[in-house]
Structures are given as structure tokens and as C-alpha cells.
Design a protein that fits this description.
Coiled coil: 113-142
Low-confidence stretches: none
Radius of gyration: 36 Å
InterPro entries: HTH_RNase_II, NA-bd_OB-fold, RNase_II/R, RNR_Ribonuclease, WH-like_DNA-bd_sf
Structural class: alpha+beta
Domain RNB: 224-497
Pfam family, one: HTH_RNase_II
Number of strands: 26
Largest sheet: 5 strands, antiparallel
Number of domains: 4
Helix content: 25-40%
Number of helices: 16
GO cellular component, one term: P-body
Strand content: 15-25%
Mean pLDDT: 94
Length: 599
């Protein structure tokens, strides 16, 4: 490179003029911009003088390749062979030939002429690429027309993977001008007549859909109080597969004695064991209309589910409660129990449950007097049985209240014990609602639910205003909820005189489990809505709705038979809690939305 003479170089793939200035190069780029760079940042083409008005001459590329096949030469030698001269234009032309990579390929500052075999392989690869592109365009045409062929299956699998959230992009949807979102992929598959019943939501949220496959240890040998002489009833919805609590109450002097027996899961699942770590990873059982995905291996439920065997191991909460519903004393211990399983309907006719009914009413009245909120909106159970979707309203049996109050008492007693004994514990807390709603009926409950603050799980005690309790912890579902299991692990450590988890360890588990539990709840909600919309599409619907909110000319109705809310245009003014008949119009399955109209 001559001082004061502009040489021709390549910088970031573009031609530039370079002049030396104090060990660096000053470049003149296309368009006239100036830039200083290091010599190693450019590829030298010609010492100049040169300009950027480069008109590459006609050359003999093929003849040069035949002479050089398999050899490596400089850019200057290639320019002279192809163009018969070494000019800036010829040097740039040689660079472009090498950059194109057909017969020549740039290697460092030299150029290698490909071998004949390489050239044939490149041509074959290009032929295959063109063939793939042709096949892709033909497949796109079929997909646009809604008539996919068997050979289009790999492309459809790519769209399905996006719909399930297993990939982030789809060349197929991009080529069709559609958004590359899971919802758009789902809608596209539905238009093609595919995925009519596929529920993508749990996979989309990254949740495992198979039970854990881990060995389950035998029940350890330890002292247990034999309570098999006392009645015990596991009361649940029909078809429940994981009975993890049972109850019995009797009248005693001054009030009641309540037994709440809970599956002794911590006996088989100690902290930091493989089973414990897997349960933490899952957070909770995943209840889908298609079936349940447990957080623990099924063998744990088989061994510990109350009433699944003639005698079951349990962790028993024995509570003494006053006539006014005041907790007087609690004991917690491992036990053997003999449990009878009942549905909520069957429980209504069991005379032995009358004391439980009276105790539940006393404790419920005490909670309500302390500010507890009672919100009872219609609920349904959605199940997929074979090819049929079934929606079953859950009747508000009084026995549901009996069981609920017993479980709340056990949680209150466990939290009270944990505070008294200085145990780190996963406490449940809730601040007072943003406002108290006056009024009656479903509309008032709907409005009150909107004013609720989210319940939180903490490693320090705090009031649960929604329940009207100064302390509370969930302890009655360790087969189904990970933090209930943590509570049991802490109680067992205390009972056995072992070191319990520290507050920081409990807090770490609370944070991790709650993050996963949020995903589980979202998957359950969306899956339930997915199958409800499919039910409506397949069977249609006309039935009662209750007006719970007015929004301008629109009304929000609750449909008790479907456990669904719908926003509907109101042709005339209706009072809140008014009942009307609604007819299903259509559903948008990917968006999880349904349209109804007043009959």
C-alpha cells in the first residue's frame, strides 16, 4: 500500500478505499463516510490507485477453474487468470467470485478452487434445496385450500409443536402470513379439521403429564396410637381417587372432641428425598378433566390414602373445641385408623356425623363474627369419559360445610402449635378485602369475590382475614399439595425430636412451590374451560343464567349448570340477580371464549 494512494479493501463485506494514517487505516466507505480501523479488520484487494466506481469486467471463470481445480491461489492470481489483468475492478471481481462460493471459495487471504466432486455435491445440494422449496410451496397451497396430504405431516407437526408451546416459531405460519403464536397455530389446526379435542394448555405451561416414576419406600416401623375402635369418615365428591383426610367428632363435657386424620405422607417422603424434590418440582396434583396427574407416585396414594385399605396410617389432629367454637386444646400424633369412605350426599344420612354438624356450625359462626367471608358461587365438575364430555353441577350439600370447617380447624390448630413451638411453617395469610359488599344473592358474592385480595403463603404467621382466623396453615391435603406436605414434615420432625427445616428453607420451598402451583391452577382453569367449550360446541346449550354485573349495555351472567360466566347484550334493563334463559351461539376454542345470547 503506497502512502497517499487509496488502496481497495473489503470491510464488513463491502468495498472501501483505505489510506495509512499512523499505523491505522482511514477508510472511505460507499456514500463517502470515513472510518478508522486496524489493518487486520480489512481484506486487502489492490494497492491502488482505486475508486469505488467498480465495474467488474467479463471474465473466464469456468476456464480458470478448470486450470486451478483443487489448488489455492491469491486473489491477484485469480484476477489475472479470470480477467487477464490485475486491476481494482478485476481484484474485486475475483473477491466476488470467491465470496459467491460456487467454483471458488475464500480461505483466509487466499482462494481455493473447488474440486469436481465438491462442485457436483454443491449442485446436488442446490437441486435438493429447490426440490424442498417446490414441495414446501405445494404443501402451502394444499394447506391454504384446507386439504393437507399425508406427506404434509412433518409441516403439521411443526405447527402442533408451536400450538403446544414446544417451539417459538413456525415457518409454515410465517409463509401463510399468520401470527406465530400458540393460539394462531391452534386456530389453524382447527380450520384444517385437526385437533378437534386436543387440550394444549398443560403442555403449553410446561407441566409434566405423566405420574412420577420413583421407588416408594416401605412405611417405617414406629409407634402409632391405635384409633381403629373409633369411627372415621373420608367424605368427598363421587369418584375421588386420593382420599387424604377423614373426620369424626363427638360431644364431650363443655363442647366437642374432633379428630381430623390426614394421610401420613411425610412418613414416606422426608425433606430433600427424591420423592420430596419431585413433589416440589410439581407443586400439586394436576386435576384435568381428562384425569389426574399426581405430584407423587401412585404407590404413595395406594399405601396412604385413607380408606383404601382396611387400616390406614395417619397423622391425627385431636382437637377439643368449646360449644362456641373456640379451640381449647390440640394434640398431634401418628395413628392407625379404620376409615369409611362416603360421598357428600351419603354423609347427610349418617347419624354419627351429627356432632360434626353442630361443631361445624359453631366454628363457622365464630369465623363469620370475626369477619370471615363466605362466597358460594356455583361449581361444576367437568370430566372427559371416553369421547364424551360430562359437566356435573356440584350440589351445595351441607356436608361440604361440615368437612370444610373441620379442615379449617385442623389448619388453625396446626398453625397455633407451630407458633407456640417455634416451628418454621408455611402459613397461609390474606389481607382484608378492598371493600365489604352489601347485598344478597349471587351478584353480591360475585362483587365480593372481585374485591378479595390474593391469599399468600408465608414463612411467618399472619392473619387470614378471608377465613376470619388469626392464624392458618393448610395441612389436610399432603397427597395433593406440596406445602401441606412441608407442614407435615415439620410436625413430624417436632414429634420425633429431630431438626426441622429452618425458616429460610421453608421460605425457599414456599416460593418455589407457589410458582409452580400458579401454573397448575392456570392449567386446570384453562383445561376446564377448554372442555366446557367443546361440550357446548358438540351439544349446544340453552339454560338459566343469573345477572351478577351490569357493564353499560352488557350484562355478566353466571350459568350455574355450566360453572361459566358470559357477557351478553341486554336489550332491556334487568335487576341484579334476575334469572334469564341464555342460548349458546359459538365458541372460539383457541381464545377460550364463548358467546351467548338471551333467549
Amino acid at each position: 500500500m503506497l502512502r497517499g494512494v487509496a488502496a481497495l479493501v473489503v470491510y464488513k463485506g463491502k468495498p472501501a478505499l483505505a489510506e495509512e494514517q499512523g499505523g491505522r487505516l482511514e477508510l472511505t466507505l460507499e456514500g463517502g463516510a470515513k472510518q478508522k480501523v486496524r489493518p487486520k479488520d480489512v481484506l486487502f484487494l489492490h494497492p491502488g490507485p482505486a475508486s469505488l466506481d467498480l465495474k467488474v469486467p467479463e471474465g473466464e471463470e469456468e476456464a480458470a477453474w478448470e486450470l486451478l481445480e483443487g489448488q489455492t491461489v491469491s486473489l491477484r492470481e485469480l484476477a489475472e487468470l479470470v480477467y487477464g489483468a490485475y486491476t481494482p475492478e478485476a481484484a474485486y471481481g475475483a473477491y466476488l467470485l470467491a465470496q459467491r462460493g460456487e467454483r471458488f471459495v475464500l480461505e483466509g487471504e487466499g482462494v481455493r478452487a473447488r474440486t469436481r466432486e465438491e462442485l457436483l455435491a454443491l449442485k446436488e445440494a442446490e437441486r435438493k434445496r429447490l426440490e424442498r422449496e417446490r414441495a414446501f410451496q405445494e404443501a402451502l397451497k394444499r394447506l391454504k385450500e384446507g386439504s393437507p396430504a399425508p406427506e404434509d405431516r412433518p409441516l403439521l407437526a411443526e405447527v402442533e409443536a408451536l400450538a403446544r408451546g414446544e417451539r417459538k416459531e413456525s415457518p409454515v405460519l410465517r409463509a401463510l402470513g399468520l401470527p406465530e403464536t400458540p393460539e394462531a397455530a391452534h386456530a389453524f389446526l382447527l380450520r384444517l379439521g385437526l385437533w378437534q379435542r386436543e387440550n394444549p394448555h398443560p403442555r403449553r405451561l410446561g407441566l409434566p403429564l405423566q405420574p412420577p416414576d420413583l421407588p416408594v419406600p416401605p412405611l417405617p416401623e414406629e409407634d402409632r396410637v391405635d384409633l381403629t375402635h373409633l369411627p372415621a369418615f373420608a367424605i368427598d365428591d363421587e369418584g375421588s381417587q386420593d382420599p387424604d383426610d377423614a373426620v369424626f367428632a363427638e360431644r364431650v363435657e363443655g363442647g366437642f372432641r374432633l379428630f381430623v386424620h390426614v394421610a401420613d405422607v411425610a412418613a414416606l417422603v422426608p425433606p430433600k428425598s427424591p420423592l420430596d424434590e419431585e413433589a416440589l418440582r410439581r407443586g400439586a396434583n394436576l386435576y384435568l378433566p381428562e384425569g389426574t396427574v399426581p405430584m407423587l407416585p401412585p404407590a404413595v396414594t395406594e399405601a396412604l390414602g385413607l380408606g383404601l385399605r382396611e387400616v390406614s396410617p395417619a397423622l391425627t389432629f385431636e382437637l377439643w373445641v368449646s360449644e362456641e367454637g373456640e379451640l381449647l386444646e390440640e394434640r398431634v400424633y401418628p395413628s392407625w385408623v379404620q376409615v369409611k369412605r362416603l360421598t357428600y350426599r351419603e354423609a347427610l344420612g349418617v347419624e354419627a356425623l351429627r356432632p360434626l354438624e353442630a361443631l361445624a356450625e359453631a366454628f363457622r359462626a365464630k369465623r363469620l363474627a370475626a369477619g370471615a367471608l363466605e362466597i358460594a358461587l356455583p361449581e361444576v365438575k367437568v370430566r372427559v369419559e371416553g369421547e364424551e364430555v360430562r359437566i356435573t353441577p356440584l350440589p351445595p350439600y351441607p356436608s361440604r360445610v361440615w368437612v370444610r370447617e373441620a379442615m379449617l380447624l385442623a389448619g388453625y390448630a396446626a398453625a397455633h402449635l407451630a407458633v407456640r413451638e417455634g416451628l418454621a411453617f408455611p402459613f397461609a395469610a390474606q389481607e382484608a378485602p378492598a371493600r365489604r359488599v352489601e347485598g344478597e344473592g349471587l351478584a353480591a358474592m360475585w362483587e365480593q369475590r372481585k374485591a378479595l385480595r390474593r391469599a399468600q403463603l408465608k414463612a411467618v404467621p399472619a392473619p387470614h382475614k378471608g377465613l376470619g382466623l388469626p392464624l392458618y396453615a393448610q395441612v389436610t391435603s399432603p397427597l395433593r399439595r406440596y406445602l401441606d406436605l412441608v407442614a407435615h414434615q415439620q410436625l413430624r420432625a417436632w414429634l420425633k425430636g429431630e431438626r426441622p427445616l429452618s425458616q429460610s428453607e421453608v421460605l425457599e420451598r414456599v416460593g418455589a412451590a407457589e410458582a409452580v402451583a400458579d401454573l397448575v391452577r392456570e392449567a386446570e382453569r384453562k383445561s376446564k374451560l377448554h372442555w366446557t367449550l367443546l361440550y357446548l360446541q358438540e351439544k349446544g346449550y340453552e339454560g338459566p343464567g343469573v345477572l351478577v354485573e351490569r357493564r353499560g349495555g352488557q350484562g355478566v351472567f353466571l350459568l350455574p349448570e355450566l360453572g361459566l360466566s358470559a357477557q351478553v347484550a341486554l336489550p332491556q334493563a334487568l335487576p341484579l340477580n334476575a334469572e334469564a334463559r341464555l342460548r349458546f351461539l359459538e365458541a372460539d376454542l383457541p381464545a377460550l371464549e364463548a358467546r351467548f345470547a338471551l333467549v
